[in-house]
Amino acid sequence: MRRGDEFRAMGFPVEGPAASAQEPVPRLFVGHFQRFFTFDGLSGRKFFAGEMSIPAPAGLSGGPLWVPENPSKLIAIVSSNMESHSIIDSYEETTQDGEVTRGEIRRQISYGVCVMLSEVGDWVWDRVRNGGPVGP
To answer: What are the phi and psi torsion angles at 130 (to 5°)?
Structure first.
């Protein structure tokens, strides 16, 4: 896999304010890999990850990723999101007594993160073949 390669993902996100009462909606997601890196997961585990050009809504996590040229080959599993931001504007205000406050207006950006199976494929297949747990 390389930066810019297209991927497809399948998920069942539930949306809206009463999300718990709604049925999941099957959706196909399309994006591009932006980079590959070692990700420090929320559980403290590190893994080789792909940064997706799309965020991963609830219901996409754990879903499969594949490339359009070979839809039967699983290449990654959606893991989570990584948050970033861009500064849209900054400001400085001075009160009458001379106190200066500074602030920024930021735009939040979410990138989906996926576990690249090229690094963990043998481990997963070992668990599948032996019927063992996939977790720790």
So the answer is: -95, 0
